[in-house]
Amino acid sequence: MEPGNEPLIKFDKVVKKFGDNVVLDGLDLDVNAGERVTLIGPSGSGKTTILRLLMTLEHVNGGTIWVGGKPFSHMYRGDQLVPANEKYLREHRKTIGMVFQQFNLFPNMTVRKNVTEGPVHSLGVPKEEASERAVELLEMVGLADKIDAHPTQLSGGQQQRVAIARALAMRPEILLLDEVTSALDPELVAGVLDVLREIARGTDITMLCVTHEMGFARDVSDRVFMFDAGRIAESGPPEQIFGDPREDRTKSFLKAVLEHE
Amino acid sequence: MDFVINSLPLYWEGALLTIRLTVFGAALAFVLAVVVGTLGTMRNKAARAVAMVYTEVFRGVAALVLLFWFGNSLQEITGFRLETEFAAILALGLNVGAYGAEVVRSSINAVPRAQTEASIALNMTWWRRTRLVVFPQAWAQMLPTFGNLVIELMKATAIVSLIGLTDLTKVADDFRASAVADTFTVYSVALVGYFLFAQVLIVLVRLLERRANRKLGRPTDDSLLGLLRPPSIGTTTGGAR
Amino acid sequence: MVWDMEFTRLLLPALLTGLWVTVQATVLGYALALVLGLVLAIVRRAPVVGAIVFVITEFIRTTPVLVQLVFIFSLSALSDVSPLTIGIVVLGVHYSTYTAEVYRSGIEGVAKGQWEACRALSLPPHRVWGAVVLPQAIRKVIPALGNYLIALFKDTPLLFAISVPEMLSVAKGMGGDHFRYFEAFTLVGAAFLLVAVPSAVVIRRLERRYAAV
User: Which domain holds residue C85?
Assistant: First the structure.
C-alpha cells in the first residue's frame, strides 16, 4: 500500500458473533482520513457493532481491523498477528473517541470532571490546560454555564452535548457517534445535531455515525453505507444513496424511514 | 434508680469495650469486604474462586464458633495464643466481612456496564476506572446494607462476654450474679445502651448516605427525622444476617 | 499435633444429639418468626398501635439476641419452662422483627393498582390480604425469608449461654472433659458449613426463580 492512499480505518474480513448469532460475516470496510461516514440500515444489521469494535468494547472473532496502517484488533508478535492485549489496546485506542446513545456521563463527577478526566488521566494533559480546554469545548456546545453542574441536573440534550465535549477533549482523530439522538426527546434533537454539524464543518476529524436522522446523514456525510444483515448492501455518496438507490433493500428501508418521519 | 445511677460508670467501662470491638471489627470487615468483593467481580477465575471460598466459609460458620475456635483450638494445634480481644475482633471481622464482600460484589456488578464502556472510551486503566467511576457509584448502593451489617456486628460483639471479656453484656451478667439489683433492671440498662449505640450508628450511616447521594447528584432527604429512619432490610441477598 | 481419630469417634454421636437440638430450635424458632413477623408487618400499618409496635420491634432488632436470651432466661429462672423453649421463643421473636421488615417490603412492592382493583370490587379485608396482596407479596420475598432461616440457624450456638445442649455446648463440654478443643470446635464449624453452604445455593436458586425484588 502506498502511504497517502492508505485508508485510515480498514476492516479486513471481520467476523463478529454473539453466541450463534453472526452479526458481521466477513466484513470489508474502508474509511479514509477526514472522511464523514454514515452507517444506516435496520436495527440488528451490525452498524453499532462496527463502532463498538473500533472502541474495543467488543473483540473480533475473525479477520483484522487496521487503523492508520497498523493492526488494531491485533498486534505483531514477531511477524505473527495475535489478538491485541490490553496494553496494546490502551496505546492505540487513544486516537478514538465515542459518543453513546445513552450519554453515559459519570454521575459521580461534575460536568467539568467528566470532560477533563480523560485528558488528565489517560493523556497526561496538565489539569489547568485540560480545564481551559473544557471551558472552550463547553462554550462550543453552548453549556459553559453548566460546568459545575452534576449530570443529573441536565436535560438529555444537554447531557449529550457534554458527552460530545468529553469525547472531543481527548482530541480524537476518529469520532464514533452511536445513535446519539435516539434517546432524546424530539425537541432536543436539533440542538445536538447542530453541534455535530459544527464539528463536521470546523474540524477534520474522521467521523463514523450510526444514525436514523436521514436529513443529518445527507448533510454531513461524504459516504453512506447501507447495512443489511451484517453486510454492506450498498454504499456511495449521499446524493446517490438517498436520491437514486440501486438496491431494493435500500429503497424499502428508506421508504419506511422517511414515511415515518 | 439509685442502682442505675451508681452503676453507670461500670456500664460505661463495658460499653467502651463494646464500642472498641465494633469499631475495629467494622474496620477489618470493611477492608476484607472491599478487597474480597472486588476480587469477586474480576474476570480472573482464581480471584473469583478465592472470593467465593472466603465468603462461603465465613458466612457459613457462626461467629461464636469461630471465636471459640480462635480462642481454644488454634492454640492447641499451633501453640500460638491469640490475645482474647484480638481473637474477638478477628472472628467478628472475618464473619461480617464475608457478608460485606457479597454486598460489594453485587453493588459493583450493579453499576451499569455502560459506565465501564464510557471509561474505556476515555482510555482509563482498570484501576482508575474502578476507583473513580465504578466504586463511587457502587458505594452509594452499598451504604444502606453496610449500615445493617455494622449494627449486626455491634450486636454480635456481645458474644465476647462468653469468653470472659468485660463488655456491656458481661457487666450486666456480673451485676446479676452478685444480686446487687434485680434481673430486670440489670439487663434493661444494658439493652438500652445497645439500643442507643445502634441509633448513633444509624445516624452516622445516614449521614454518609446523604453525602454519597449528593455526590451522585441525587436528591436527598435532608430532614432531621430522616436521619433516624432505620435502613430498610431484607430484600437483598446477604443483606443483614 | 495431628487430628485425633479416637476423640473424633467419641465426639460424633454426641455432636449428633446436639445437632438434633439445634435443628429443633431452628425449625420451631423460624416457624414462630414467620408467623409473628407477618402479624407485626400487618399491625404496623395501623395508625397509633403501628407506631408503638414499630418502636418495640426496632428495640428488639437493634439489641443483641444473646442479651435477650440471658435476660429472659434469668427472669424465668424460678419457673419450670425449659431452656430450649425459652431459646425458641426468644430467637423466634427476635427474628420476627426481621421477617416483619421483609414482609413489609413485599407488601409495599405490590402495585397500587392491585389495592385499587380490590376497592373497585369491594372485596372484604380478608380477601384483599388473603387472596390478593399476600400471595403476591410473599412470593417475591421468599428468598429474603430464606436468608433469615440460615441466619437463625447460625445464631443457635448462642443457646449455649442458657445451657441448652445444642452442638456448641456439647462440643465445649466434651472438649473440657478431654482437655482438647481442636477436634470439637472444628467439627462444629464443619457441621455449620455442611448445612449453610448448600442452603445458600438453594436460596440463590430461589432468587432466580422468584426474581427477587
Answer: 13-210
Q: Is this complex's ipTM strictly greater than 0.90?
A: no
**Most B-contacting residue of C66, C75, C148 (CB-CB within 10 A), to test interface:** C66
Domains and CATH numbers, chain A: 9-104+173-185+194-260 (3.40.50.300)
Give the span between the Cα atoms of C92 and C148, in whole angstroms.
Answer: 11
User: Do C and A make contact, counting contact as 3+ CB pairs within 8 angstroms?
Assistant: no
CATH number for the domain spanning C21: value is: 1.10.3720.10
**Residue B236 belongs to a domain:** no
Average pLDDT over residues A49-68: 94
Any domain includes C7: no
Residue C213 has pLDDT above 60, yes or no: no
Chains C and B touching, counted as 3 or more CB pairs less than 8 Å apart: yes
Q: Do residue C67 and residue B230 have CB atoms under 8 angstroms apart?
A: no
Q: Identify which of A33-37, A256-260, C168-172 has the greatest average pLDDT.
A: A33-37
pLDDT tens-digit readout, B73-113: 777 777 777 788 999 999 999 999 999 999 999 999 999 99
Q: How far apart are CA B232 and CA C13, in angstroms?
A: 42
Task: Please tell me if residue C147 touches chain B, with a CB cutoff of 8 Å.
Answer: yes
Q: How many CA atoms lie within 13 A of B161 on its CB side?
A: 25
Judged by a CB distance cut-off of 8 A, whether residue A166 touches chain B is yes
Q: Please name the residue of chain B whose CA is at the shortest distance from the CA of residue A89.
A: B123
* Direct distance between the N- and C-terminal alpha carbons of chain B, in angstroms, rounded to an integer: 36
What's the distance, CA C54 to chain centroid? 19
Distance of CA B194 to the CA centre of its chain: 15
Average pLDDT of the residues of chain B: 87
